[in-house]
Structures are given as structure tokens and as C-alpha cells.
């Protein structure tokens, strides 16, 4: 059971759907895993929950 975890900023449902389809297709192609066994988890992160260089992205 291949598992892919992706953390991104806010993206549309259309973008999520495309990512899931393309990640799944690539995993199936490379590993020969069954498509039904590929899991893709997408976590969206808000700018106020991300810090880079000692500063929140929402403050930049």
C-alpha cells in the first residue's frame, strides 16, 4: 500500500484532483502497485501556521 503525503498552501479542489490522479498514475507505473491501493493525503497549511527564517509567512 503506497502512501503519499503532500503539504501545500491552499489549493483548489481541481488542483487536488489532478495531483491525486497524477501521483497515483506515477506510483502505479513505477511500482506496479494496484491503483486501488495507492493513498494520497493532502494537508493544506495556512500562512499563519508556517514560519521561515524566524517570521510567519502571514507577517511578510
UniProtKB/TrEMBL annotation:
<dbReference type="Pfam" id="PF01361">
    <property type="entry name" value="Tautomerase"/>
</dbReference>
<protein>
    <submittedName>
        <fullName>Uncharacterized protein, 4-oxalocrotonate tautomerase</fullName>
    </submittedName>
</protein>
<feature type="domain" description="4-oxalocrotonate tautomerase-like">
    <location>
        <begin position="4"/>
        <end position="59"/>
    </location>
</feature>
<dbReference type="GO" id="GO:0016853">
    <property type="term" value="F:isomerase activity"/>
</dbReference>
<keyword id="KW-0413">Isomerase</keyword>
<dbReference type="InterPro" id="IPR004370">
    <property type="entry name" value="4-OT-like_dom"/>
</dbReference>
<dbReference type="InterPro" id="IPR014347">
    <property type="entry name" value="Tautomerase/MIF_sf"/>
</dbReference>
Amino acid at each position: 500500500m503506497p502512501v503519499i503525503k503532500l503539504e501545500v498552501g491552499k489549493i483548489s479542489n481541481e488542483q487536488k484532483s489532478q495531483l491525486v490522479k497524477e501521483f497515483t498514475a506515477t506510483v502505479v507505473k513505477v511500482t506496479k502497485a494496484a491503483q486501488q491501493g495507492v493513498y494520497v493525503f493532502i494537508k493544506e497549511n495556512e500562512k499563519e501556521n508556517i514560519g521561515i527564517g524566524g517570521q510567519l509567512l502571514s507577517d511578510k
